[in-house]
Every structure is written in structure tokens, then in C-alpha cells.
Amino acid sequence: MDGYFGMCICNDRRWPETYRVMGLQGVEMVLLGFNTPNTNSQRPEEGPELRTFHNDLSVQAGAYQNGTWVVAVAKAGNEDGFELLGGSTIVHPSGEIVARTETLSDELIVADCDLDECNFYKQTIFDFDRHRRIEHYGLITEQTGVKRPE
To answer: CA-CA distance, 113 to 96, in Å (whole number)?
Structure first.
């Protein structure tokens, strides 16, 4: 298929660096598998609607900011007494969801994913050669954790 593919799992989807590292390598499709409970055990009031929103936000932003397709495949149903989120999606390089599962049962979603559609985003809006200025990213590589400015 003459394309560039990347892969990540579960929690990786929440970090912009995951997509950026692949974006810097010219990836045209990110394949992601995740199994996330419907509710947050550390914050029970955070239910499926908010968790779905956060999942979509992360995946759509990663796709858009790096001009890449993202195929996010979710495990659904019940595992070890926990209901899982489900919500498999296919996201266009524009950040738009082009296919999504509708239930928590086994489902198959498909979409025509033209890898050439990445080119517009990679060559204009997010042209890393012109717009990514590494001299401004020192903190990202120099520290771990939060340190407030003095």
C-alpha cells in the first residue's frame, strides 16, 4: 500500500507526544487499541459520557495536529466485572470522526481511508519543517513533572 503506519496502545492515546513522534516520522495512519472502563474508579462521578468525550478529544486532536488517520479500536462489554467504554472510531486527518461503533456489542466499522488525504495537512497547516520550532520546546525534554516558574 506504500503507506506509513504507526501503532500505540490504550493510555498512549492521551499524550500528544505519542502522535507527534509518529507525525515526525511521516505516519499516515495510527492504529490504536484500548480497553477503558465506563467509569473512573478513582472518580466515580466521571461516567461514560465524559470518558467518551475525553477519548474522542485525544484521538481527534492527535489525528488533526499530525495530519494522520487514527483507527481507535475499543474493547467493549464486561471484563472482570467492569463495563468497558467501547466506542471504536476512525478519524480523518481533519480530526473528524468518519465511522463509530454504536453499541457495546461486537461491531465492525469500515471507512475508505485515502492516505493521500494526509498530504494537505502535512504540507500546509502542520508543515513541521516551517512551523515546528524546536528551540521553543526545551521544557518538554528537560524536565519531568510540574515545576512552577520562579
So the answer is: 12
What is the per-residue pLDDT for 146?
Answer: 93
Distance of CA 98 to the CA centre of its chain: 14
In order of 51, 52, 70, 87, 101, the CA distances from 45 in angstroms are 11, 14, 29, 20, 24
Residue 82 burial by Cβ neighbours in a 10 Å radius (0-12, 13-18, 19+): middle
Q: DSSP secondary structure string, 108-122?
A: -------GGGHHHHH
pLDDT at residue 1 greater than cutoff 80: no
Q: Model's pTM, two decimal places?
A: 0.90
Q: The domain 5-104+114-142 is classified under which CATH number: 3.60.110.10, 2.160.10.10, 3.90.1200.10, 3.40.50.880?
A: 3.60.110.10
